[in-house]
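2024-03-11 09:14:02 INFO queue: dequeued item peptidylprolyl isomerase, len=538
2024-03-11 09:14:02 INFO validating residues
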Amino acid sequence: ELSVEQRFVPESCPRAVRPGDFVRYHYLGAFPDGTRFDSSYDRGSTFNVFVGKGQLIAGMDQALVGMCVNERRFVKIPPKLAYGSEGVPGVIPPNAVLHFDVLLVDLWNSEDEVQVQTYFKPEKCPRTVQVSDFVRYHYNGTFLDGTLFDSSHNRMRTYDTYVGIGWLIPGMDQGLLGMCVGEKRIITIPPFLAYGEDGDGKEIPGQASLVFDVVLLDLHNPKDGIAIENQLVPESCERRSQTGDFLRYHYNGTLLDGTLFDSSYSRNRTYDTYVGKGYVIAGMDEGLLGVCTGEKRRIIIPPHLGYGEEGRGKIPGSAVLVFDIHVVDFHNPSDSVSITVHYKPSNCTVLSKKGDYLKYHYNASLLDGTLLDSTHSLGKTYNIVLGSGQVVLGMDMGLQDMCVGERRTVVIPPHLGYGEDGVEGEVPGSAVLVFDIELLELVSGLPEGYMFVWNGEVSPNLFEEIDQNHDGEVLLEEFSEYIQTQVDTGKGKLAPGFDFEKIVKNMFTNQDRDGNGKVTAEEFKLKDQEAREEHDEL
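2024-03-11 09:14:37 INFO prediction written
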């Protein structure tokens, strides 16, 4: 009788051989005395055949039924279920009992379909693979018995391809459909949906079932545009970015599977660029339009609007990019100073002008509210001569036409502030500045171009009064003493806010026309006399 001994049965047996199945198995064939008459191992290939269709000797047809992949059986077949009284001339004698040591490697049925087993699926799955999508995935490829024939992990590079348009074997085209990024699934493919009777001519033999353990890393469609997910939009948004604006923003850049490839936070510096001008990848150019200062948004960029098929640096080719951005500030090169008055006294007749000496308090911050500096914390006012270049140009503009007691907010674009370089350790480059100002004191300045004016009539013998020793020459000491006396007695007034010695020295140098350190009566002229002479010359 037919004898079947199970020498090894795997723990897992998802399916067993049934009549009509196609099997691939290895075997050793021997006579009862141990003499070997055949071996698939010697040929280096499995024996491939349908079971129960008369393609095998009757004993083997029966012995294979119920076997699992990786199961090993020892089979004794009597002659009546083998080659009978005729045998096989030169190989198997008549009435021979045959012993087969069988190892089942593969089995499938012509009615099989692609089998998909998902063993991990992300909680969030906003999108699944559809026909014509482009995907990037890793895989391990094995046969049914677990033998590895290929792995993208070993190459340290994803497999990148279109789905459903014939770039893959049909079974993989089907098996990838419906996957989410991050999903892991096992795809089992029968040979007629894989490499068929011929195999691939290399690692995959003919009629082999294939098992792919796949993790999907990325997916997009060539028709995709960018996707924007608003994460935080400030309640107050007076202005949104437009083409030509200059933005400062922080970002984390990741791939779709969450792999970080870049971050401005790690450099502790914002990324600064023009928008809509081609200074950044096309998808980012588009994604940064319409943002508010302080806004946080996620921008998802397909590769054809990112770094394309080639990739860049840590970014692989054909990768979808995810940028989580935080807009710190933005401005336009055409922007001027913006002034918002919060309080103005009812009696506001004297307005600040160029040359006035001002004392004021301020809080200085960035557009996102980051405090840079405050006079309140120092316990003293900031004092300047308006229009003299003692502060940035935008502040000179923002302090114009202000009255004592007035409070205002002055917003200064970087080209009227500290420019592209900023102030190291204090003000970032290209930063918009916000000053909350309160004017506490105003001392009216002198007319433009004057450092000293008379409060009354000018003496006709002015030079003689200054020349105290009457030697026809005025030295700096004499000049300085005379000016000090005029100021102290109220007869004259110096421009407020400047160092007395510097002003006097400057006035003296203007009179000392030959530069010899002395002023003579011929050199000495008042400002209005100089103006008349210049007019006559013209």
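2024-03-11 09:14:37 INFO annotate: The longest strand covers residues 98-108.
2024-03-11 09:14:38 INFO item closed
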